[in-house]
Description:
This protein folds into three domains: 10-23 and 208-304, 4-hydroxy-3-methylbut-2-enyl diphosphate reductase, catalytic domain (Cobalt-precorrin-4 Transmethylase, domain 1), CATH 3.40.1010; 25-108 and 312-319, Rossmann fold, CATH 3.40.50; 110-194, Cobalt-precorrin-4 Transmethylase, domain 1 (3-Layer(aba) Sandwich), CATH 3.40.1010. It contains twelve helices and twelve strands. It has helices at 3-8, 24-40, 54-63, 90-98, 109-123, 137-143, 157-162, 181-194, 208-220, 236-247, 282-293, 316-319; strands at 11-18, 44-47, 65-68, 80-83, 102-105, 127-131, 151-154, 171-175, 226-230, 252-255, 271-276, 297-304. The strands form three sheets. Strands 10-9-11-1-12 form a five-stranded parallel beta sheet, with helices on both faces. A four-stranded parallel beta sheet has the order 3-2-4-5, sandwiched between helices. A three-stranded parallel beta sheet has the order 7-6-8, sandwiched between helices. It is flat and about 65 Å long. The mean pLDDT is 95.
Amino acid sequence: MDLQTRRALPPLKILLCSPRGFCAGVVRAIDAVERALAKYGPPVYVRHEIVHNRYVVESLKGKGAIFVEELEEIPETTAPVIFSAHGVAKSVSAQASARNLLAIDATCPLVTKVHREAEIHWRRGRRILLVGHSGHPEVVGTMGQLPEGVVILVESLEDIEKLKLEDESNLAYVTQTTLSLDDSREIVSALTRRFPLIVGPHKEDICYATTNRQAAVKEVAPHVDAVIVVGSPNSSNSQRLREVAERAGAPAQLVQGRGEIDWSIFGSITSLGITAGASAPEVLVEEIMDAFAERYDITVEMVSTANESVSFPLPKELRALA
């Protein structure tokens, strides 16, 4: 595009959120699949999407990963089976062991922390309330760490009002790691008001990446006409970013790639915020920016609210190769 054509385009200032995109748990999970492919050769089976992103999943499929929802879909094999970053119920691990499958656990260490917290509370005789979203793989995995009925899911303030517990003096709570900070604070405040003796986590369960990405969106959203969140619709942290932007006053659209942009929303805007969920690769952010550069004369400003230096070691089965 020549300079004259560029000047004819309407100006658009893009505020690019930082941090955005991949977190340490996602990097670890993707690396685990790629290292397993390098070590054992294809196929490598992965139970559930390794992370909630279509681009990532399709890329790994192209390298020889086979994704399944349940272990029953895997034939008798010596190939490794990787558990996704969201974590799995103990029954899944037990099933893999019973079949002598080479299971490699790529659960995010911050999710594993919640699992351990829940188990410690249970061993101390406490009933556990889990703040999270029904059906999300992380929630299913956390509830599946303990016998059925031990963990009660709390999704809303209404759920708290409906709770009828025999012993209200011996409770604990844990939370899903990818919740909205504002929503979770509201629910936790209501829990502690109703159950003053309830025991919480020693350290916040909502992960650093969720916290940092939401903080960056809160900083940017009041200063732009609209926000684009790059991420998948089944990604909890991406959906929460969209909600955070809208609560801060900016219309927000969640897209998986440039082909999903609804251009009718952005016709006369002069400023745009862009962020990406923790499972969205940077290449998709670049594609989105390229798409806007074809229609606007863009200038880009980075808005950084935190520096991230967190990293997690690979699962032990893959560390020697690393």
